[in-house]
Design goal:
This protein has a 5-stranded mixed beta sheet, with helices on both faces. It is of the alpha/beta class and about 190 residues long. The chain is built from 7 helices and 5 strands; from the N terminus they run βββααβααβααα. Helices cover about 40% and strands about 15% of the residues. The chain has a domain of about 130 residues: Nucleotidyltransferase, domain 5 (2-Layer Sandwich), CATH 3.30.420.10.
């Protein structure tokens, strides 16, 4: 399969609110990779251990993630190996990396740098995002083609516009990746992207 579409999503502790991404601590990362025209072929989701120090660090609880669950997760270094491997594959295939809110998810992942042994991986992450990253909530050309206006669309509303149904939103990284992947497949089908 030609892996040319990668979806990345993060779940955070909600520290500082939505607009203060520099204070957000990543609790979970989801990845979904496919060819962008059919069902996804690779899924990866993990909670991250040692990114928070107590239950009190989790401000927003809408995703249902707690401190104990995170402690059973993977290290940032193990997750990053998978993340960079997927990004390299999509880059080699001249594809795109999609995030519904690229600025947010990118900063949340950048906030993990103190946990990384190999800091060059963060440099590579940002280099690839700069070249092939695509934000589905703020790409004005895409939004104008879909809606005739260029305002922010939530992931739920993007799904409703494209697929005429409201997705079940559970605020977990892999579930949001699946929702966005369905949107990407549809946008490619109707030549919006």
């Amino acid at each position: 399969m030609n892996f040319n579409s990668l979806i990345i999503d993060t779940e955070t502790n909600g520290s500082g609110g939505f607009n203060k991404t520099h204070t957000q601590k990543c609790l979970e990362v989801g990845l979904l990779m496919g060819d962008g025209v059919s069902n996804e072929a690779f899924q990866y989701s993990t909670l991250l251990k040692n990114t928070i120090s107590s239950e009190g660090d989790i401000v927003w609880k809408g995703h249902g993630i707690n401190f104990e669950m995170c402690q059973g997760g993977k290290s940032v270094n193990k997750m990053f190996k998978v993340l960079i491997g997927c990004m390299r594959k999509v880059d080699e295939n001249q594809g795109n990396i999609f995030c519904h809110n690229l600025i947010f998810d990118r900063q949340v992942i950048n906030n993990l740098e103190p946990h990384l042994r190999n800091k060059e991986l963060m440099v590579e992450f940002n280099d690839i995002i700069d070249r092939i990253g695509f934000c589905t909530c703020s790409n004005r050309q895409m939004l104008l083609k879909l809606t005739n206006y260029d305002k922010f669309l939530s992931l739920t509303n993007l799904h409703k516009v494209l697929l005429k149904t409201k997705p079940k939103q559970v605020h977990r990284a892999i579930d949001d990746c699946k929702i966005l992947y369905r949107c990407v497949v549809e946008m490619k089908r109707i030549n919006v992207i």
